[in-house]
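tool=predict chain=A
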Amino acid sequence: MTTDPAAASARAHLDRLGVEYEVMDCDPSLADTAAFCEAYGVAPEDSANTIIVAGKGRSPGDAPPIYVACVVLATTRLDVNGLVRKRLGTRKASFASADETRDLTGMLIGGVTAFGLPDGLPLWVDAAVMDRESIVLGGGSRNCKIRCAPAALLAIDGAEVVDDLARPLPAEAG
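tool=predict ok
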């Protein structure tokens, strides 16, 4: 099991919430969703990604960006420039950079989780996530993932289920 501080923080948060979960160790080179699902036999529709979004341009001038964490299924695409931008009330929204994500959460892309996020960071969960029996999401480190019931996300202060936060990925041609 990893001793990464962000992963330890995520597990401590889960323990404080009193929810059931399983830590799944993984090879850090296989932490990205598609590679992880293939290597560890997890169905993509049971894999969820925690994505940090930066909203900019709330008002004239150089107002700092505002951030939100969004949890969506790996089989969907976050509606960053539609619903997320509108809910943030900003002119622009984009995926936070790897550096922004690390600086804000202490986590690296491929390991970001909804558990152990900074206090006050809004957490929006796509309603489709709640339809799964269990989900696998980042464990705070690229060395591990967390498997839990989607309801565990609702134990997080400020978590909100949002309809149509993500859209299904287009079917593969061919």
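The domain at 5-161 is CATH 3.90.960.10 (YbaK protein). The CA atoms of residues 123 and 159 lie 5 Å apart.
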